[in-house]
Design a protein that fits this description.
globular, 7 helices, mainly alpha
Length: about 170
């Protein structure tokens, strides 16, 4: 007797992509699609709850990156850490964050540096508090260990390398 899961097949966004040699990859892709959209909505709503409405997910990511470790960052630093190829997207976020006085621009020689302002740091601190209350407590209730989450994160980062390599190969076709 077959189970409903076997009858329905893998849960994917595009059944035709699950017919090859690795249908489970399509399941991962569907999970990433759902996670990406949920995470994007979460970042925007969490930052709004922290008192800074109307930021895009990219704006939130860039602000947190600039705030990280309290060191000034270059555009190249931010793009590298966030794995963003299109510097214009990050530049747009920088201009918006500067206009909102969440970051400030400086120079090191000819190099443009961005750093968080006290208002930007306070926004990140409030975001972290909202995150702890609403998200972390919820995830802790699932009893998934920190070690398990770290292992999942390591696999996701490794998988991103496969997608980057495939992207480079596709660009050469």
């Amino acid at each position: 007797m077959t189970s409903d899961a076997e009858t329905l097949g893998p849960i994917v966004s595009s059944g035709h992509l699950a017919t090859g040699a690795l249908p489970a990859l399509s399941e991962i892709e569907f999970g990433m699609i759902m996670l990406n959209h949920a995470f994007s909505r979460w970042m925007v709503r969490c930052m709004a709850a922290a008192g800074i409405p109307d930021l895009s997910p990219m704006d939130v990511l860039v602000l947190h990156n600039i705030n990280s470790r309290g060191k000034p960052k270059t555009l190249a630093d931010i793009c590298l850490v966030l794995n963003i190829e299109d510097t214009h997207v990050v530049n747009y976020a920088l201009k918006k964050l500067e206009r909102l006085k969440l970051i400030k621009v400086g120079k090191r020689g000819k190099e443009k540096l961005v750093m968080v302002t006290p208002a930007g740091e306070a926004a990140c601190t409030r975001y972290a508090a909202v995150r702890e209350t609403l998200l972390v407590k919820s995830v802790l209730a699932t009893e998934v260990s920190g070690e398990t989450l770290s292992a999942i994160a390591a696999r996701i980062r490794a998988l991103s390398g496969h997608y980057d390599q495939a992207c480079r190969a596709a660009a050469s076709l």
